[in-house]
Amino acid sequence: HRLGIQAFKPILVEGNAIQLHPLTCSAFNADFDGDQMAVHLPLSKAAQTEAREIMLSSHNLLKPATGDPIIVPKQDVVLGCYYATLAKPLAAGETIKAFNDIDELVLANANGLIGYHHLIKIKLTPDGDWLETTLGRV
């Protein structure tokens, strides 16, 4: 079927296996138990243009027949999204730290002052209201 052939921008990795993004697996009916896939290279300029403009997986997000989404988060992706957005309750006597922008927030995380699940307050725009959230949600 049409979605069984898609174009990707390769990234070289160590080893002999092709690493496929989990969101693209359903289009190929692929899983991670040792499936085999063929690799074809577009040689002519016309074939390369077609691959870049029509066949990229980012251009094939919906089923052609029904318009239903093909790329749907499942399993590990859903668990990862849930975990990233968890909020840890404040401990006794702990206060919510406030940050003026995302750069300040990321720097505080890099220095170990806050984690992804700590409640924080941040201004997402200079003249905006304070938003109570977590780094994982930002």
UniProtKB/TrEMBL annotation:
Keywords: DNA-directed RNA polymerase, Nucleotidyltransferase, Transcription, Transferase
Record's catalysed reaction(s): RNA(n) + a ribonucleoside 5'-triphosphate = RNA(n+1) + diphosphate
SUPFAM superfamilies attached to this UniProt entry: beta and beta-prime subunits of DNA dependent RNA-polymerase
RNA polymerase N-terminal domain span: 1-85
Any single GO BP term: DNA-templated transcription
The keyword Signal is annotated on this UniProt entry: no
Any Pfam family the entry gives: RNA_pol_Rpb1_3
The protein's name: DNA-directed RNA polymerase
Taxonomic source organism: candidate division Kazan bacterium GW2011_GWB1_45_10
